[in-house]
């Protein structure tokens, strides 16, 4: 049961990394410093005052950059790989009593994969907002992402089972939607005259 809770905790935090890279790490650091979270061996550095200061500074810079028009789209190209790395780290730092091979495999697949799914979804939303509003609507998108990342990070630590289970359902739903869209995009279209043509 403890292992399951650790995995769900990691999944919840990894999902939060898909919205903002450093906010979940900042929340983890604060939770560790206050005694509300126990980090896996080798990751105690996350719960140090130095790490907290670094994560706080990085979070502020990251949040502010997403409020600058067009810079937010540029940030997405940087945040995508960074979110996968952060998702892998938060998952690995949440799970103890597991062989290193299994632990890092889970961290990469479940942690990095979950972060990648949500980061990809936010990139699509911001791209659509930029196209429809010339970037003017991105302020609302950035605010929503910050709120979701912050709330998810806190809930993942406070109620990991509920949060992790909800995230898994969302990952399956988003994955199914994206897979369906890709499948339809690859299928040849039928012209009104009955012939086939490719996009």
Q: Helix amount, in percent?
A: over 70%
Q: Classify the secondary structure makeup into a structural class.
A: mainly alpha
The best one-word shape is: globular
Mean pLDDT, all residues? 88
- Taking Cα atoms only, what radius of gyration do you get, to the nearest Å? 19 Å
In the residues, how many domains can be counted?
A: 1
Report strand %: under 5%
Kindly report how far apart the N and C termini lie.
Answer: 50 Å
Order of helices and strands: HHHHHHHEE
Number of H/I helices: 7
- Biggest β-sheet, characterized? 2 strands, antiparallel
Low-confidence stretches: none
How are the strands of the biggest sheet laid out side by side? 1-2
In total, how many beta strands? 2
Structure description:
With 199 residues, the chain is an all-alpha fold. It has one domain (2-197). It is built from seven helices and two strands. The protein has helices at residues 2-17, 23-33, 49-65, 71-94, 100-133, 138-158, 160-186; strands at residues 189-190, 196-197. Strands 1-2 form a two-stranded antiparallel sheet. α1 runs parallel beside α5 (100-133) and α2 (23-33) runs parallel beside α6. The longest helix is centred in the middle third of the chain and has 34 residues, at 100-133. The protein is globular.
């Amino acid at each position: 049961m403890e292992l399951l809770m650790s995995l769900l905790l990691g999944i919840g935090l990894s999902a939060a990394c898909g919205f903002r890279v450093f906010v979940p790490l900042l929340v983890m650091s604060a939770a560790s410093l206050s005694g509300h979270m126990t980090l896996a061996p080798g990751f105690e550095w996350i719960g140090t005052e130095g790490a907290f200061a670094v994560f706080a500074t990085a979070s502020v810079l990251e949040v502010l950059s997403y409020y600058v028009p067009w810079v937010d789209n540029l940030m997405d190209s940087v945040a995508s790989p960074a979110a996968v790395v952060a998702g892998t780290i938060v998952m690995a730092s949440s799970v103890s009593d597991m062989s290193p091979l299994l632990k890092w495999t889970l961290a990469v697949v479940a942690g990095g994969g979950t972060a990648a799914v949500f980061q990809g979804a936010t990139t699509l939303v911001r791209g659509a907002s930029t196209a429809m509003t010339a970037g003017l609507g991105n302020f609302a998108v950035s605010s929503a992402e910050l709120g979701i990342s912050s709330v998810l990070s806190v809930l993942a630590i406070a109620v990991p089972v509920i949060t992790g289970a909800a995230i898994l359902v969302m990952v399956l739903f988003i994955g199914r939607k994206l897979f369906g869209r890709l499948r339809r995009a690859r299928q040849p279209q039928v012209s009104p005259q009955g012939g086939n043509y490719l996009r």
